[in-house]
Each structure stands twice: as structure tokens, then as C-alpha cells.
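Support request from a user on the community tier.

User writes: "When I paste my C-alpha cells into the form, the page sometimes reloads and wipes my input. The last time it worked, I copied everything first. Here is what I submitted, just in case something in the input itself triggers the reload:"
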């Protein structure tokens, strides 16, 4: 059966959640008091985990193969997002601030940022615009590209 890449990605997410749920059930039901029967038997859960994991891996491989037409966009989006995260962490403190080195000393230090918050915000906005454009292209591709399930 052929489905869109978008639908395959939803299926991948669903399978990943199922795998996570099964793992949690195994963790919480493997050991219990001897006189209490556990609500779930672990052996069948392990079998189900193996089947779901195999299906998930096979689907990931198909999705990866289908993504070759947009890998450049995916990589650019990843790098732009990384740059946005980095730029948001840059300290833009300006003016007189109490020194942290001499707690309670009252010493004031004069800070000067080389790039101010306004310029950083403009840089971030441009990167986010690029991310949005690329995301729209990836979404369009995902809704048109068909893969065999």
C-alpha cells in the first residue's frame, strides 16, 4: 500500500509511542511481590516489543530513503535551528552591573556587548523566516511523496 510521506511520518510517531509504552509496561511489571500476580506478563510484551521495534526500524529506513529529495532542506533547517538556539544564549548585558565575583562587595562593573539584543533578534528573525520557508517546502514534499508501506 502506498501512502504519503506525511502519513508515514505519523505512523512512525505512533509506532515510537507504542514501543515506549511497551517498554514502560515491561519496566513496571517485571518484578512484583510473589503473592501478587502482575497485571501484565512480560514475555508476551517482549515479543510485541521486538515486532514493533522491527516495524519501526523498517519504516524509518523507508522514510530515510524517501527523504533523499529534501535532505538539503532538512540539514539547513537543523543548522538554522541550532544557530537560533546559540544566538538566544548570547549575553547582551549592557551598563553597570554588580559583580558576581565579589558577592556583597557592591562593586559595579560596566558591561558592553559587541552585538546588542536588537541586532541578535533581527538575526534570529531572519533565521526563523528561513526555517519557515524550508519547513513549508518539506511539508509540501511530505504530502506529495508516496512510499510503500
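"...and here is what came back when it finally went through:"
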Amino acid at each position: 500500500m502506498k501512502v504519503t510521506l506525511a502519513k508515514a511520518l505519523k505512523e512512525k510517531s505512533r509506532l515510537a509511542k507504542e514501543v515506549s509504552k511497551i517498554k514502560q509496561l515491561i519496566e513496571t511489571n517485571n518484578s512484583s511481590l510473589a503473592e501478587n500476580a502482575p497485571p501484565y506478563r512480560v514475555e508476551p510484551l517482549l515479543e510485541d516489543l521486538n515486532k514493533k521495534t522491527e516495524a519501526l526500524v523498517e519504516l524509518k529506513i523507508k522514510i530515510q530513503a524517501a527523504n533523499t529529495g529534501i535532505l538539503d532542506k532538512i540539514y539547513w533547517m537543523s543548522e538554522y535551528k541550532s544557530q537560533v538556539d546559540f544566538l538566544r544564549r548570547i549575553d547582551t548585558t549592557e551598563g553597570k552591573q554588580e559583580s558576581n565575583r565579589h558577592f556583597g562587595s557592591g562593586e559595579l562593573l560596566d558591561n558592553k556587548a559587541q552585538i546588542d539584543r536588537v541586532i541578535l533578534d533581527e538575526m534570529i528573525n531572519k533565521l526563523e523566516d528561513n526555517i519557515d520557508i524550508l519547513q513549508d517546502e518539506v511539508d509540501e514534499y511530505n504530502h506529495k511523496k508516496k512510499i510503500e508501506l
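Agent notes: The reload is a front-end session timeout and is unrelated to the input. The chain has one domain: 2-148. Helices lie at 5-29, 42-66, 71-89, 117-144. Escalated to web team.
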